[in-house]
Amino acid sequence: MQIHQVISTMTSSRDPNLHSMVHELIQDAAPLIVHNHNYIINNIPADMCIEASGTVISPVLNKLFMTALRHTKNSVILISAKVYGMVVLVQLKSKGNVSPALADDLGHACLKAQKTGGIIEVIHCENEQASIAYCFLNVAGAA
């Protein structure tokens, strides 16, 4: 745990690496991923850094991922991200057994996102497929 604290201290002055944040969230969710027989692909470029605060974005991503993982079984979940000017779009796409209650259960994650100036939208959730988008401003201090 001390090594993690040293690494966090070293990287806190730089822009957060989105790929690394997502990788850590996936590791934290490993028991749920294994329990529900899901397979996660972190397709975010390894060098993708954001200007927004990682300490603000990470809890929103965590709530979003944990909610999505609770509602998917035997699924492949692809996580990707793109930067569009001052906006970052993180997208989760799932194909497998997706509970129809996923959209309803994302309410708390949506509220967390709104408090940071972001938005979470369920783009598609039917026929055992789901696509969820999380958009936030890529500006230091905005989130």
Characterise the protein shown here:
The protein has 143 residues and is an alpha+beta fold. It has a single domain, classed as 2-Layer Sandwich (Heat Shock Protein 90), CATH 3.30.565. 40% of the residues lie in helices and 32% in strands. The protein contains six helices and five strands; from the N terminus they run H-H-H-E-H-E-E-H-H-E-E. The chain has helices at 2-11, 18-28, 30-35, 54-70, 102-105, 107-115, and strands spanning 39-42, 72-84, 87-98, 119-126, 129-137. The chain has a five-stranded mixed β-sheet with strand order 1-2-3-5-4, with helices on one face. Strand 2 and strand 3 (87-98) form a beta hairpin. Helix 2 packs across helix 4 and helix 4 packs antiparallel against helix 6. The two termini are 27 Å apart.
CATH architecture: 2-Layer Sandwich
In whole angstroms, how far apart are the ends?
Answer: 27 Å
CATH class: Alpha Beta
Arithmetic mean pLDDT? 85
* Name of the CATH superfamily: Histidine kinase-like ATPase, C-terminal domain
Total count of strands: 5
Radius of gyration: 15 Å
Instruction: List low-pLDDT spans.
Output: 1-13
Helix- and strand-based class? alpha+beta
Order of SSEs: HHHEHEEHHEE
Total helical elements:
6
| Percentage of residues in helical conformation | 25-40%
Q: Please give the largest β-sheet.
A: 5 strands, mixed
Instruction: Write out the strand line-up for the largest beta sheet, numbering strands in chain order.
Output: 1-2-3-5-4
- What coarse outline follows from CA principal-axis ratios? globular
Proportion of β residues? Answer: 25-35%
Total number of domains: 1
Under CATH, the topology can be stated as Heat Shock Protein 90
